[in-house]
Amino acid sequence: MEPTNDDDHRANGSDHNHLAKRSKLSSSALVTDSEIRAEFAHHQSGIARINNGSFGSCPSSIIAAQKRWQLHFLQQPDDFFFNHLQKRILHSRTIIKDLINAEHVDEVSLVDNATTAAAIVLQHVGWAFAEGRFQKGDAVVMLHCAFQAVKKSIEAYVTRAGGSVIVVHLPFPLRSEEEIVAEFRKALAKGKANGKKVRLAIIDHITSMPCVVVPVRDLVKICREEGVERVFVDAAHAIGNVHVDVEEIGADFYVSNLHKWFFCPPSVAFLYCRKSPVSPDLHHPVVSHEYGNGLAIESAWIGTRDYSSQLVIPEVLEFINRFEGGIEGIRMRNHNAVVEMGQMLATAWGTALGCPPDMCPSMAMVGLPASLRILSDNDALNLRTRLRGHFGIEVPIHYQEIKDFQDGDGCVTGYVRISHQVYNTVDDYLKLKDAILQLVHEGVTCKMLSPE
User: Fold this and answer.
1) What is the DSSP string of 413-427?
2) What is the largest CA-CA distance in the chain?
3) Closest Cα to residue 293, out of 303, 280, 276, 307?
């Protein structure tokens, strides 16, 4: 079915509240197990795909909807540009606004991914340093496990303009949220030493590697108490994975990808920017003819490109609402399943989870047997490659350095980061369990593994 004028009528917002809030369907309308298998039948056969966290996965029905929007554009690009595109993007933004409890749709922009959002925020901070509104040596605080692209954006925009960086080193494995809070307070104190100011704090809502849910609301509150000027929450994994309420969290900026845990095709993310006096100074790094019309409008047109991943958000929400409990039901079932599977693996391998279950989202870190001797990032990558190539398992491996030990004897220095999404089955995790046990039984160490 091709998009119709009804879609443009909905773009005016006449039914977005119904779409965003609907979560209860009759039992006959709920998605079945066979329908879930059909939606993800395009996954490569024979692969235990336990890594939804990296790239997400898009259902077949949403891929079909995306193709319809692509064709709609190609059939008559001028008509699509002048009469449909902006209304449809506004409709998608309005749905996200309701899902995350933003006050106004103007606070929500759609961008390609969290990397783009980080560039927008850090470009803005870099200009403040370069133009003298922030003093040289004032600080940006970030977690040590921040995504590499965020670190590079800080390098590109902030440090070259005279800002300094304070890194919060989080312990891992983690036993409680209090450990995160304590280290964060130390970093803020360091940033404020000698009369300097912390101009920006970057907080992950869910760290990527190692993976843990951060008490983001508490950290934002601490930032306000300590006079941190602006707070940017990098929540690349968040929507569809944890509850998101931007009013409750209270950050100035909040970004989450929609292609990781929200079933959108790559690539699309939302960037929430709380309305404030600095809002007009936020700009998309790709300058188009919409420059100066507000970030949301600038982001909605950055030149001729494929915008279909932004246009299918209403169809994605309809897909999500076919599951019992909608988005909240999906995330709770995924969380419970990944904790259960993580505990099963830890028991089989004689290890433990990397953090308490209530700090796991739909992902969990599970310790690997010490006998594998994961002693470097290269060892972790080689083990991941071996699992993919020889066992048909896709799962990330994390190397955790431990100081003051001899060659890793008896110490857990490697963790798998398992994900659970609606398409996963118990067999995926049993396959991983047995593969690791086989390597241990055969006396394999990572030193024996070589890239394929």
Assistant:
1) -EEEEEE--TT--HH
2) 68
3) 280
Give the whole-angstrom CA distance, residue 452 versus residue 445.
Answer: 16
Distance separating alpha carbons of residues 179 and 65, to the nearest angstrom:
45
pLDDT at 16 over 90: no
CB 29 within 8 A of CB 319: no
168-171: long-range contacts (C-beta < 8 A, 24 or more apart)?
168/141, 168/142, 168/143, 168/144, 169/144, 170/143, 170/144, 170/145, 170/207, 170/212
Please tell me the total number of residues recorded for the chain in this structure.
Answer: 452
Do 325-446 and 69-317 fall under one CATH topology? no
- DSSP state letters, 272-311: EE--STTGGG---SS--TTTTS-HHHHHH-SSS---HHHH
Decide if 430 contacts 50 (C-beta within 8 A). Answer: no
Q: CA–CA separation, 177 vs 173, rounded Å?
A: 12
Q: What is the pLDDT of residue 27?
A: 57
For residue 389, pLDDT over 50 is answered with yes
Q: Do the beta carbons of residue 352 and residue 369 sit within 8 Å?
A: no
Residue 419 has phi, psi (to 5 degrees) of: -115, 155
Give the residue extent of every domain in the chain: 69-317, 325-446
Question: What architecture is the 325-446 domain classified under in CATH?
Answer: Alpha-Beta Complex (3.90)
Of 198, 203, 194, 246, the closest CA to residue 225 belongs to 198
Tell me if 129 sits within 8 A of 136, measured CB to CB. Answer: yes
Mean pLDDT for the chain overall: 91
pTM: 0.91
Query: Looking at the domain covering 69-317, what would its CATH class be?
Result: alpha beta
